[in-house]
Amino acid sequence: MVIPVETGVDVRYYGELMYIIFDKPYCWLHFTENTKYKVEVTLKDMMDNLPKEVFMKCKRSAILNLCYCKVFRKKPPVIVMDDGEKFMLSRQNVQDFRRMTNILPRISPPCHTCYTCRNDKCENRVIFYQKKMAMQNNEPKET
Predict the structure, then answer these.
(1) CATH assignment of 2-129, given 1.10.287.3510, 3.30.310.80, 2.40.50.1020, 1.10.10.10?
(2) CB atoms inside a 10 Å sphere around CB 97
(3) 42 DSSP assignment
(4) What's the pLDDT at 126?
């Protein structure tokens, strides 16, 4: 991910992104190590560019990386993230959350560190780069 900052740009891995909070007209991107960025983009545009396997829109103003979900409470339905931030879920979101977490262990490692590793041969990085590779393969070729 390339993020514009005052001094230029910052490059971060999708796997380091814990959650996004939309505060019109900006999105606050919350990364690991308590790093956050404010970017002018819609939540829909963010969701369209994130891997759908691990990122879930939990309400109208937030997207969560389920790899950083620490606790799920049923009543009231709340997700607690690794940094302690809490997100309420609607009935529909609870169903989506359960569906996604049922398949999550099959596509993700048991720890978070693999998503941020820089080992090019790591199979678990595939999730975050599938979309990037698909976009590169669909670019028009020069003739």
Answers:
(1) 2.40.50.1020
(2) 20
(3) -
(4) 45
Q: Is 109 helix (H, G, I), strand (E, B) or coil?
A: coil
Burial class (CB in 10 A: 0-12, 13-18, 19+), 137: exposed
Phi, psi dihedrals of residue 106, rounded to the nearest 5°: -75, -20
Quick: pLDDT tens for 45-81.
Answer: 888 888 888 898 887 889 999 888 888 888 888 999 9
d(CA 107, CA 98): 15
Distance, in Å, from the CA atom of 115 to the CA atom of 129, rounded to the nearest integer, reads: 11
pLDDT of residue 19: 94
- Counting every residue written for the chain, the total comes to 143
Residues 6+ away with beta carbon under 8 Å from 22: 28, 42, 43, 60, 61, 62
Q: Sorting pLDDT into bands at 50, 70 and 90, what band is 138?
A: low
